[in-house]
Structure formats: C-alpha cells, structure tokens
C-alpha cells in the first residue's frame, strides 16, 4: 500500500465510526489516565489535515498531490484512483523526470498557499496540555502553529525539530524538565532539498534505514520507549506500522510487556494481517474501533475537557525571574542547536546566561516577563539565520523589538545588541531590523563557537558588572 494511499476512503467529520463507539469504552480510561500522567506521545498523521477547497473540505495532502501533478505535468488520469504524492512522485521519476523537482515544487506550493488555517483537530490536540512532545509524520508546519495559537497566543514558543538522514538532530535530553512544547518531524520537514523529507515510500525506506544502527536518536528513542504512543491518522503501510511499534520497545515484541500503544487509523484497522500480527505477538497494541481520526480527536478532546473540569485546580507555581545582568540569547526555534552551543560556551566562561523561555511556566504572562528580562540583561545576543526571515508571526521578533527599545537607554559607548549569524543570511535582508543591520555581525559555523567572540562577550559582561546602567 502506498504511503498515505488516498484510494482508501477519506475520513470525514460526517462519517460514522467503523464500529460502535462503546466497543472502545474499555480503552478510553487507560488512555486518559496515561495522558493525565504525562506518559503519552501522540504521533500525528496526514489524515488530520483538512482544508476548505472548492465546494467542501479535502485532505491537504490530496490537494497537494493534485497541484504537484500539474506542476510536474503528470497526467492524473493515468493514475489509479485519486492522486497521491506517492503516485505522482513515482510516475514523474518513472517517466524520466528529475527527482529534485518533486521537492522544489512542493516547497513552492506550500510557500505560495501562505498561512493556511490551522485544522481544528490539531487545535484540539494542542489543548491537551500534558502532551509536551508531539511526533509528526507530516512535513508541513501546521502542528507547531496549532500549539502556538492555543498555548502561546500565536507567538513562536514551540521548539520544532526535523529529522533527516543527512542531519540527525535529536530532542534535548532534558525535554521533560522544559516548559516548552516540542514538535519532532520524524519524516522530515518541507525543504527544497531532495531527500530532506518523505514524499514517497522509497523516501520512507531511506529514513527508516538511516534510523538503524547504534541509536542515532537516543533521547527520542528513550522518550518513545518510556511512553505510550497514540498514532492518529498516519495511514502508514503495514511494514512501517510494525517498525514503529518495534522501535518504541526496548525488547523484541514477544518479550515486550512494559506499556500499551494505541492506533487510530482506518487503514491499519482494516488490514486483517496487521491486526492478526499485533494480537498474536502480544505487542501491547490496541486499535480503536473508532478509526475516523477526525471523530476520534473530537471524542478525545471532549472526554479530556470533561476530565479537566472535574479535577481539582493545580497549586500556584512561583515563577523565577532572570537575575539582573545576565546575557540574554534570542533565537528562532530552528536554530536551537547553535544557540545551545553558544550558551554552553558562555556558561563555561563564567557568565550568567538566560538561554530561552524554559523558565516560564504555563499560565505565566510570558510576554511581559520576556520584556522585563530583556530590560534587566547586560547583553542581548540575537542568533540570526534564514529561519528568521520568514513572513510568519514569530516570538523572537518581540524580543528584537524590546532589545531595540532598551538599546536606546544604553550609553552609545556601551555595546548592548550583539548579532550572531549562523548561516549565510544576507546582512541587508529587509526582514532584519535596521538597527541590527548597522551593527557588526559575528559569524558562527553551526555549533562551533569562536573563542574570540566568547572573550569579547566576557569583557563586555564584566564592564557591565562594574557600572550601573540607568534606564528611564
């Protein structure tokens, strides 16, 4: 079966469950209890992503397949059933087309459609606060946008990590202690680079192959081993379902007894061989009879909200404030590895560093707290890259704006804003503030921090400690 094969019936908000809802009743309580305890990692698939097109709703990835076929001049009438990205990509390559054009055209398509409305099911999942780590099998940015809209008033506060065979980036080891939310694109994120995300089943095979060997993602693997997976609407072929179930276990399936995973997928539930495999080998995997992912998320959200209303109110948590005079590092979530390397280098040099928003707790007025922390910092380091020149609403722009306001109150002879470019971003790009363009930019190659820059920051930091800056 092709990856995300649209020849299967599309889920619909008006469609009934494949079986009676009460057939799942014994599964709901274990699932909700595990969510409540923070022991569930949702794996989100394409079947949750619907958009309004023409006379009604359609799946985003079916819509993309139709437009990709036009862009690549693939005859959709020659394809069996409704076009899928897998079918269009396969036909393009088999007729001598350049594979690189598949990724370039898709990147352009997603850029040209602009800010698509976030599908309601993604917002409902974002509203379940114990979900801290989300694994996405899609290559779009809608899930992170949903979390930012629901939890952070649309500001960029979700850390997005994208895996690719060429760039095996893991989640932070301390992700559970963080107050951020994380979206891990296990099958890559949209890019014009060939092989950087999964379009076809051949791509999926390459990604899975790159995950073999001595643990390329130890932190993510540990998180999946210790959590129950909730796989919703991924439409994986049977071999990939088996792989994920096994990858999320420390032991072979016959010996695995430590947890239960849950699958919500019409394709998986309708595959008799897969169901028999999961049951016969006692894999601890349950398949919901309510296989329509849109209806399932609606039911899950309703049950969760009812549970939250009945729970006692949590005790208030005192939010720590940044110590005066710390170095503030501002960055786009895509550049976190480079920012982490910079933080570690400054820490090792004996400086107090405010690295990110991890010290802000849910419910805190994080925007006002960020503004206050920038007013209290000694130096403002802006990590700049091509990720910063997107037209989307991003949290770091609020930080940039506040830094420029504070810079006006700093003596002209004292440096305050220190831009650090971590790629070949143009110095004069229109999306970069004019104040930043007028300053000298330090360059940093990935996670390699220039010792000379660390020495410069340490000198400025010490100068700040020896004087009092009056801010009106």
| Biggest sheet strand line-up | 5-6-4-1-7-8-9
Estimated radius of gyration: 24 Å
Q: Judging from the principal axes of the Cα atoms, what is the shape?
A: globular
Sequence stretches where pLDDT stays below 50 over 5 or more residues: 1-20
Instruction: Please give the number of β-strands.
Output: 14
Task: Explain this structure.
Helices cover 39% and strands 12% of the residues. Strand 12, helix 15 and strand 13 form a beta-alpha-beta unit. It is globular, with a radius of gyration of 24 Å.
How would you summarize the topology of this molecule?
Elements: H1 25-36, E1 40-44, E2 50-53, E3 56-59, H2 60-72, H3 85-94, H4 100-112, H5 120-126, E4 133-136, H6 142-152, E5 158-162, E6 181-185, H7 201-210, H8 218-226, E7 228-232, H9 238-247, E8 261-264, H10 266-269, H11 272-280, E9 285-287, H12 293-310, E10 327-330, H13 336-348, E11 353-354, H14 366-376, E12 379-384, H15 395-407, E13 417-421, H16 434-437, E14 442-443, H17 451-465
Parallel strand pairs: 1-4, 1-7, 4-6, 5-6, 7-8, 8-9, 10-11, 10-12, 12-13, 13-14
Antiparallel strand pairs: 2-3
Helix pairs in contact: 2-3, 2-4, 5-6, 14-15
Which terms summarize this structure?
472 residues; alpha/beta; Rossmann fold; 2 domains; 7-stranded parallel beta sheet; 5-stranded parallel beta sheet; 17 helices; globular; disordered N terminus
């Amino acid at each position: 079966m092709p990856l995300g094969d649209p020849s299967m019936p599309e889920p619909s908000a008006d469609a009934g469950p494949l079986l009676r809802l009460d057939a799942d009743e014994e599964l709901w309580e274990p699932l909700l209890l595990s969510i409540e305890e923070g022991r569930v990692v949702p794996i989100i698939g394409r079947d949750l992503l619907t958009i309004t097109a023409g006379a009604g709703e359609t799946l985003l990835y079916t819509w993309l397949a139709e437009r990709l076929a036009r862009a690549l001049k693939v005859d959709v009438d020659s394809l069996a059933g409704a076009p899928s990205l897998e079918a269009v990509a396969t036909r393009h390559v088999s007729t001598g087309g350049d594979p690189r054009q598949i990724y370039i055209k898709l990147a352009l398509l997603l850029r040209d459609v602009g800010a698509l409305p976030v599908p309601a099911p993604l917002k409902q999942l974002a509203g379940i606060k114990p979900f801290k780590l989300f694994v996405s099998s899609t290559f779009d940015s809608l899930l992170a946008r949903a979390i930012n809209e629901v939890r952070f008033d649309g500001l960029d506060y979700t850390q997005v990590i994208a895996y690719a065979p060429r760039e095996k980036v893991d989640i932070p080891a301390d992700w559970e202690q963080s107050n951020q939310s994380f979206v891990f694109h296990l099958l890559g994120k949209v890019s014009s680079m060939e092989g950087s995300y999964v379009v076809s089943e051949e791509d999926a095979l390459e990604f899975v192959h790159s995950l073999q060997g001595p643990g390329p993602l130890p932190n993510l693997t540990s998180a999946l081993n210790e959590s129950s997976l909730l796989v919703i609407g991924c439409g994986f072929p049977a071999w990939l379902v088996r792989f994920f179930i096994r990858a999320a276990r420390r032991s072979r399936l016959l010996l695995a007894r430590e947890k239960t995973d849950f699958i919500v997928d019409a394709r998986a539930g309708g595959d008799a061989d897969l169901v028999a495999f999961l049951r016969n080998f006692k894999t601890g995997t349950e398949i919901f009879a309510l296989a329509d992912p849109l209806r399932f998320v609606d039911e899950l959200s309703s049950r969760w909200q009812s549970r939250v209303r009945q729970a006692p109110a949590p005790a208030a948590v005192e939010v720590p404030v940044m110590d005066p005079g710390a170095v503030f590092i501002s960055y786009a979530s895509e550049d976190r590895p480079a920012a982490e390397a910079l933080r570690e280098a400054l820490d090792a040099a004996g400086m107090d560093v405010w690295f990110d928003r991890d010290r802000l707790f849910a419910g805190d007025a994080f925007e006002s707290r960020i503004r206050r922390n920038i007013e209290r910092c000694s130096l403002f380091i802006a990590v700049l890259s091509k990720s910063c020149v997107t037209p989307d609403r991003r949290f770091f722009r609020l930080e940039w704006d506040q830094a420029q306001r504070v810079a006006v109150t700093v003596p002209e002879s004292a440096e305050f804003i220190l831009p650090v470019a971590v790629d070949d971003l143009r110095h004069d790009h229109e999306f970069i503030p004019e104040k930043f363009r007028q300053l000298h930019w330090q360059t940093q190659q990935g996670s390699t921090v220039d010792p000379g820059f660390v020495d410069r920051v340490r000198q400025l930091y010490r100068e700040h400690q020896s004087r009092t800056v009056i801010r009106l």
